[in-house]
Amino acid sequence: MPRYPWSDGTDFVTQCPIRPGQRFTQRMILSDEEGTLWWHAHSDWSRNSVYGAIVILPPTAQAFPFPKPHAHLPILIGEWWNADVEEVFGNFLAGGGDPEVSDAFLINGQPGDLYPCSRQDTYKVFVKPGKTYLIKLVNAVMDNIMFFKIAGHNLTVVGTDGAYTKPMTTDYVAISPGQTIDVLLETNQPPSHYYMAARIYASGGEFVTTPATAIIEYVGNHYTPPPSPFLPSFPEYNDSAASVDFTDQLRSLANDVDVPKIVDKTLFYTLSVNQLPCLRSSCLGATRLLASVNNVSLLLPKTDILQAYYRGIIGVYDSDFPDFPPSSFNYTQGVKAKEQSGPGFGTAVRVLAYNTTVEVVFQGTNLGGGVEHPMHLHGYSFYVVGSGLGNYDRVRGPATYNLVDPPLMENIAVPRNGWTAIRFRANNPGVWYMHCHFERHVSWGMGMVFIVKDGEGPHQKMLPPPPDMPPC
Length: 472
Description:
By secondary structure, this protein is mainly β. The protein has helices at 85-95, 240-248, 305-311, 396-399, 439-444, and strands at 35-40, 51-56, 71-80, 104-107, 124-127, 132-139, 145-150, 155-160, 163-170, 173-175, 180-186, 193-201, 212-218, 265-277, 287-293, 296-298, 344-346, 349-352, 356-364, 373-377, 382-389, 408-409, 411-414, 418-426, 430-436, 447-452.
């Protein structure tokens, strides 16, 4: 969305919600993306069912950086509650604890054969032998990283988040909520039908372990299908190494990777699940869960931050989001009692001058037991230059950075009790949300906002708003 945050669609960050019976025309501006992106609602938990894929093809005069696929297969991994999702959301906030666990995972809207409700509606893909198919994979699940496999077949990863990657052959994919991954499937196995399946990865908590399934069926040859398709074997549901190792292997394809080598601004952001005493009668216990970045739990205002910034409305936000956490401690091990206090609340933003080169080091903490955090930055793609387990070391960490061919991404899963470093150039003026893509975490306040100021040139300034912006 170069210079145009007005259609970014984030409630009370870049717009106020579209009111019942009203309308707003989204104007989508792409820049250099090729591959797969996705769109989704950003109001409460409506994204659970309001989402879809965006497939961006190369210019007609150019080719894919891999053999042209026979066909494209958009595959969207979703989630299903038997209850009304907005009621689940309301009960979750009122109770102060974790949300109700969903009842099923989905592939293109169907849970598949292994669930008792919809065997006859299992999603099926018909393929021809000896062809190559480009699967456009989207994780639209609310709160979980997912493993994805196709029985009997290897996959070749060729892109993520609208950017190409060096080809990587694997028998499984680990994909975070909000992430897209493009993979090539070669139909080079004996003609039959095979399960395509998505199964949860989770380092803790309650969850559904039954995989969502779809069926890959070979056509054009006569065969007698087995009584049931072959189900792939997955990594264990809590195999953190399998999730981390997959992401660590991603590499950028381009030879002209523009990784900022000199950093103007280094930001160190701790990511925590916190607790506060719960004084409401609806609470399920004595405490309620919150989440924070640098111990600040984001409170969204009643007037969106973009309107306030553009029109100079004071009192909506503060420009003092901290560059570092308020105190240092052993982030990933046992935490002292004084560090277990609840976060502060604030609507604080970080203001960046145009063209500032930025490094953000995300540090997961063991507060709340420690979990992964898939971090997403609106308005930008960023280079993932490094990651590791344990506490980030300011001397040894940068020595491990990949500044040659790091992947260009929009979402990155910070490992459980670990760290991840990203770099980007702040050359897209506007107001841009950065948040965890676990929906429970962002609902608890794990987010912050960057304001990138205009540059001096005529093409370095934010474009004016459309006439139909929803009123606050």
